[in-house]
Every structure is written in structure tokens, then in C-alpha cells.
Task: structure prediction
Amino acid sequence: MAITNRLTQTLGIEHPVLLAPMDMISGGNLAAAVSHAGGLGLIGGGYGDGDWIDREWARAGNARIGCGFITWSLARHPELLDGVLARQPAAVMLSFGDPGPFAAAIRAAGVRLVCQVQSVAQAREACDAGADVIVAQGAEAGGHGQSESLFALLPQVVDACPHVPVVAAGGIADGRGMAAAMMLGAEGVLMGTRFYASLEADGHPEAKRRIVAAQGGETVRSIVFDISRRNRWPDPFTGRVLRNQHADRWIGRETELEARVSEVARDYAEARERGDFDIAAVIAGEACGLIHDIPPAGDIVRRIVAEAERLLPPRSGAIG
Result:
């Protein structure tokens, strides 16, 4: 038995599991591990560090991987897309902005276009841009997003885009979440926080430990950590992180934080350098309450798929 569907066929993968392209966390080792296990690893193109992308692509070796970009940031460094397309990636994922200006180049290169969306309107925009895959990201997800929960958003996106395979993201860390998402019409899952807590992820060991130790309800969605690192995102995006002392100090006092940003940003940067996560943010989602270990990424792929296969009805359309 195996989960085969439009997503696995479109992306040429064995298992419908995608690695979220987390900035500075989803490097070449992690992307390669997910791809070698039958999923699709996406390195995090993040805010546009070409040298980092080159280095991580080399670390991935001969693995078939893709790359994800923050769309509004890519608009400032469009040459990065050309460099990635020259490598013939398995896919390019665009998140947080209009994919239209980049879609034609991606498709002309024969590369699959994956668009992450946080609303039905964005999903329709992605369809119009020619997306091959749409990722519906719920507010449960770690890092940046919007306010709609996955269970409400996902079936609406599926209904709005019947001709495009939809992937679920946000709050998924085991086979139960994968099976539930597929019963709502998803054809696969994209996971960030679950893969952050893996051996191959490039995160700090203390950040991984805190994800494993976190209980449900210990994340918060805020702009505090963006202000603190002087990296303000456009509206309406906010970021979900593990709650810590810095968040507790400044949430609700954002105006004062802005007024003291020079001092706070210096302290915040120093905290990141020394791995002090009482101040620096661990960018993680609500799935942290379901994560209890730090295994190899390949084990994560295999056990989540196996559990989902056991739970999905044989005639659900997801099992082929």
C-alpha cells in the first residue's frame, strides 16, 4: 500500500511529504534527507543570501531537491531565482506575495511552481499564476502567516482550486494530522516544526530541545521578534514563535519596543549569537506539543506516512 495521487505524480515523489523551506534551518543536509526518504526537500532561500543557497545546494549532493523563497523579498533580489532555476530544481516554492512576476520564468524553465497561500483569495491568485501545487497554510504554523486556521482554510482552498493538488501546512506533526488533512481534501502535507526537531536540521541544539519540551499553548503569534531583529514584514503577516521571556516582556508594548529598537535589536542579535533563547525566538508552530524526539528526518517521513496509511480508509481516494 502507498499514498499515490496527483501530488506525488506532479512532483515525482514517492511520499506526499514536503519539507517547509525554513530560513537557515532547512539546509542542504535536511532537504537531502527528506528527498532520499521519498518526500521533497526544499531548502530555505529565505531573505536572499546567494552564497548560502550555493553552499547548501552543494551540501545536498545528488539529492533531488527544490528551493523556497519569501516572495516579497525575492522581488528585491530577482537574480537569485535565475541561479536556482539554472540548477533545474524539482520545484520552486513562493510564499508571502504575488507569484505572478516570477511564475512565467519558473514554468519556462520546466520547473514545478508551488505557491503557499493563507487565504482563498491568494489561492485563486496562485491558480491564475499557473501554480502546479498549492500549499494551504493555517495560522497554527510556525513562522509567518495569517489568521485562518487550517481546518477552516484547507477545504475552502480545495474547493476553490479543484484542478490543482493542495498540500496542508500548519499544526501537522504525525500521521493523524496527515490523515485528517487528506480527509479534508489535501493530497499531502508540508511540515516545518516537525522537521526542525530532526538530526539534520541546522537549528541550534537548544532550540530543538525547547521544541521537544514545549507543551500545547506555548507558542504566540506576534510582531515582537520581527521588530527586535529589525526585519519588519508587510501586513498582514505576523510570526508564530515559542513564547519566551522576551515575548512576555514586549507583547502589548510594541510602541515602546519600536522606540527602543536600537538597544533591543543589539541585545537580541547578541542573544541569537550565543544561543540564548530566553531572548532570541525559536520559530516554531503549535505542532510542538506533538513532538517528543529529535530523530533523523527520514524516520519522520516514514513513520508519518505509515501511520497515515493505517488510518486512511482504503477507498478514500488517497490510497493507491
